Amino acid sequence: MKIAFIGLGNMGLPMAQNLARAGFAVAGFDLAAGQMDALAAVGGERADSAAAAVAGSDVVITMLPASRHVESTYLGEGGVLDYAAPGTLFIDCSTIAPDAARKVEAAAAARGFAMIDAPVSGGTGGAQAGTLTFMVGGAAADLDRARPLLEKMGRNIFHAGGSGAGQTVKVCNNMLLGILMAGTAEALRLGMANGMAPTVLSEIMAKSSGRNWVLEVYNPCPGVMDSAPSSRGYRGGFGVDLMLKDLGLAVENALSVGASVPVGALVRNLYDLHSKAGNGGLDFGSIFNLLGANSNSNAHA
Amino acid sequence: MKIAFIGLGNMGLPMAQNLARAGFAVAGFDLAAGQMDALAAVGGERADSAAAAVAGSDVVITMLPASRHVESTYLGEGGVLDYAAPGTLFIDCSTIAPDAARKVEAAAAARGFAMIDAPVSGGTGGAQAGTLTFMVGGAAADLDRARPLLEKMGRNIFHAGGSGAGQTVKVCNNMLLGILMAGTAEALRLGMANGMAPTVLSEIMAKSSGRNWVLEVYNPCPGVMDSAPSSRGYRGGFGVDLMLKDLGLAVENALSVGASVPVGALVRNLYDLHSKAGNGGLDFGSIFNLLGANSNSNAHA
Amino acid sequence: MKIAFIGLGNMGLPMAQNLARAGFAVAGFDLAAGQMDALAAVGGERADSAAAAVAGSDVVITMLPASRHVESTYLGEGGVLDYAAPGTLFIDCSTIAPDAARKVEAAAAARGFAMIDAPVSGGTGGAQAGTLTFMVGGAAADLDRARPLLEKMGRNIFHAGGSGAGQTVKVCNNMLLGILMAGTAEALRLGMANGMAPTVLSEIMAKSSGRNWVLEVYNPCPGVMDSAPSSRGYRGGFGVDLMLKDLGLAVENALSVGASVPVGALVRNLYDLHSKAGNGGLDFGSIFNLLGANSNSNAHA
Amino acid sequence: MKIAFIGLGNMGLPMAQNLARAGFAVAGFDLAAGQMDALAAVGGERADSAAAAVAGSDVVITMLPASRHVESTYLGEGGVLDYAAPGTLFIDCSTIAPDAARKVEAAAAARGFAMIDAPVSGGTGGAQAGTLTFMVGGAAADLDRARPLLEKMGRNIFHAGGSGAGQTVKVCNNMLLGILMAGTAEALRLGMANGMAPTVLSEIMAKSSGRNWVLEVYNPCPGVMDSAPSSRGYRGGFGVDLMLKDLGLAVENALSVGASVPVGALVRNLYDLHSKAGNGGLDFGSIFNLLGANSNSNAHA
Fold first, then answer.
1. pTM of the predicted protein model
2. Which of A162, B183, C63, D178 has its CA 20 to 30 A from that of A187?
3. Domains of chain A, with CATH numbers?
4. Which candidate from D96, D275, D277 shows the least CB-CB separation from A277?
5. How far apart are CA C287 and CA C25, in angstroms?
6. CA distance A149 to A130
7. Residue pLDDT, tens place only, C255-298
8. Between the CA of residue D190 and those of B10, C116, D97, what are the distances in Å?
């Protein structure tokens, strides 16, 4: 089976490498030549263009930054839809707007192609280790075709529903994650301003109805959890600007489908202010810092 | 050991009954005579006044609606501090402002009394079954004296720290719970407006980084979880107005100690609007309804 | 001068009628035949299609509900750009996204056409009376060509800047208006909950630093201002769903250009909840009702 | 007539000086001796204590930082109520919680004293120039007694209603002012991110339904209005921490009386974050800076 892999960035490259290492024929394309070299180093092929990668492939995988890149790659003149052979399966692993996913998949279907949306979670660490989680939208039969490839790149594969459902789950889950993080940071700050030790407070809440993923594995208060980015200066982890992008997708999607997300919108705006203050590259747990010092000096009478 | 129990409401009565059934001598006082009768029916005593209950007791337990009741019961003229015998231990199980708890405990200490704050979670069901969770602030030695009693009323006992720490943990945890609920409701609404089945979406998020107590045991979307109040018309459970009270304590406490809780404040206001629309008596998962129908009709172009 | 007027709705019809009454040759097109009859009744012409209206016109005016209608009317196959004669001036009076305005105007320019965006304020009353305000984006020379027509439909004409600037001003102003309304309603509710008469409070704030357009001409509390929609059951005026549309454009535009509008986003969400509760057709001052009764019953201890 | 003036800070000193210059006998007390010297320099007297100032005075005026100072000054042992002669009129010009004002005035009334709350706006400039605005709560007859004094210190005197109404109007107006400022800053940022000149945008909105006090006299964008603090580095003017105090009073009061102020609460939290980032001493228009640079770099795809 021949695979075209378009988009060899921080996520795409290790994913494509895992496929190549597993023995698949992978033709990669990226605007950065160095990324293609790194793929070739583990047995992949360099392609001169997206079109060249696509030509003669059985499966096309795309991993691109945003909706507009996916749209232009598939729908633009000389795009994937123009060059793919009949019967090709498209797998878009980018995180994009559900609307955009549905639009591209409808265009693919109109030309007779099968396509699934398969955004991931797990970060660059998961991409390298092959332990990503895939959230998949599309027909079950198409997911079955994709499964042998996805299993080389990830560990959990959820079938969320029809076209766009993978993106929808991603956007819902990550909006909720942003809310969990901001809410947990506020609860910890509130306790600390009352003089409580964050470790004790975290332990009790993790056993109570405040329990959530952030308290369990990603505590935003430095020193509470050695393995969390907060304990190493908020370096590594999942960046503020990536969370901001996902929250922006959620708010935009909510406007588009008429859903109400007042809390999600506020959390997006807090991340926006935090990013504009120069913290876009820190781990998203650093929202803890936006809430400021624990001093009592701002208390009013 | 003789116990005075002041405040025999929906929570206080079953707690006092559990102590009486366990063989303790419990003198109860409440403004409602019927509640005292119910205590007497399981072996407790009726007291004519708070003062009468307190006189000659080794331990005084209070379970009252709000800060002002606790303050007047302990600090008012002819209050508990005036009638208690030297060496009496005070246990306040009410949910009140951390500031108020610290104030009353300081007044008790100034008169030579030991006092702990021990608010509970678990609701009326937990009170009846004797499975409450206690979050305790105060000296370890005083908690040790209280423990044999608390163990008849509850299952988990957390020592949170010094005076007021029990109230602080309660307020932090419940603010976070309110945020988890509102955030989960929004994520479900967003997915559903995109056409997703809430059950599938809930399952995937519960295994992903959106995981939290609400998704695990208290899903706010009707039909997803049979055991949740949402599946029985939001009846029973933890009421909107109780959550609103706890979120009000959190916002008030944040103002008092200079902490920043923008998300908690918004969620309080959403519960406030929900209550004002006439939903104060429903389970707090009904915030799902505030977010409205899943129709697409409000989508703009 | 021959004018094509596309979109004869509640706003477009009276605008086109004012042009016809002023002696211009106006060929109108709308999907609703009755609207074209109403134009014909004052001397206009019925056109069989947008294309037929456009053919041979010197100026094309469009007044359509949303971005997608404007895009398809101008850019679609067989759209305005395909049928207009060289030298035609396009005036889009619709309220749409600044991005969409810039896109359509760029496409028009690429085909050699001049175009301005000229959204209005003043409502159906202003459209009928010919007293609208126009906020215009585009070249000054093109505005000069349009001015004799705009002056028959409105009273104030602001030149905001280049392409899209009319839409930008409209979106900024109306977001601010939504904030003024919500903020004024909150201030009045807060005073009333303290026992103050809303009339006295309004008078003092209108002379103080709380002064704003809402306090001056559009008080949302029933009975304070006879001329305001609040004093006639929130009927007439500027509807909740129209404000919701404009706030949606603001939030969407902010996402697109990277601006931060946390307060605007919250106000949009309050209008969204208000609309979902069934109030979309009331005047936007009815947000006063979302804030609920003045009772003290929700106060916590 | 003999006047006791307690609290000679940045506001109180120039107010007391204006009374002394107008020929009234003013005995001033403040913890800072230098402030009393400054009063003596224009003909006032130094008092050794609040009690000494109060003894034998016809009118007592207080100008203190917060509720707790007013409560202890009037209600504490050896406080004003203990030393004032029968028939003394109390005028509290401090900005404090309406609840606190009502409490102190009820205590004064119970001892047979007349009292009005008379908070001011106009800042230190208005205090020096004698052009303050007074918002007065209390009986009309008591205001009439106070009027000759107030007229030496201010220009506008509003009678808001009964006891506490002056504080209520102050809190409502200043919450609304905070909302106007944040909303105007957002609207300007949104326009600028679309490439608009802030001066043009401000001019058009000031003539449209976005019109408000901030656009008229206090534009937060540097360079738009020479007389505004924004055009001199946000120095002078009304400080962030003072606005934060007033917004805190509004949120606290809303909790107390059961009013809903979701927008006011968000704006308070934005000022709180802005203060915690180190900007507490700047003019409150600097919230414009919290919204960050106008770059497009945070826009998502």
1. 0.94
2. D178
3. 2-163 (3.40.50.720), 168-290 (1.10.1040.10)
4. D277
5. 43
6. 11
7. 999 999 999 999 999 999 999 999 999 999 999 999 985 333 33
8. 52, 21, 35
